Amino acid sequence: SHVDEPEFEVNARELLDTTTSLSSMEVNLLVDSQQLTNEQACNELNKVSVKVEARLFGRNNIIKVLEKELEEKNKEIIERDKEIKGKEQTIAQLK
């Protein structure tokens, strides 16, 4: 399921950026038309950034898990390389 991850990652980030800027624009429009006070606007913008932070935090946790998995795989590969080299040496000695 991780195969589609990078493309999904980019789309999610774009969507996040778009959502954030749209929300910010909405808030600014409401301030301009005086439907929101500056204080209310600040609260709205904070809500937006909190949501963004939460999503990014979630993404970072996924990345950490994937990095750990990658580290494990690398260790396995190094072990296999050692085994193969050992077998190659044995074959060379038998020749």
Write structural notes for this entry.
The chain is an all-alpha fold and 95 residues long. The chain has one domain (2-94). Helix content is 89%, strand content 0%. It has two helices and no strands. α1 packs antiparallel against α2. The longest helix is centred in the C-terminal third of the chain and has 57 residues, at 38-94. The radius of gyration is 25 Å and the shape is rod-shaped. The model has no long low-confidence stretch (mean pLDDT 78).
Major sheet, described briefly?
A: none
The helix/strand class is mainly alpha
Number of strands: 0
**Shape from CA axes?**
rod-shaped
Primary descriptors:
95 residues; 2 helices; mainly alpha; rod-shaped
Describe the protein's topology.
Layout: H1 5-32, H2 38-94
Brief overview:
The chain has 95 residues and is mainly alpha-helical.
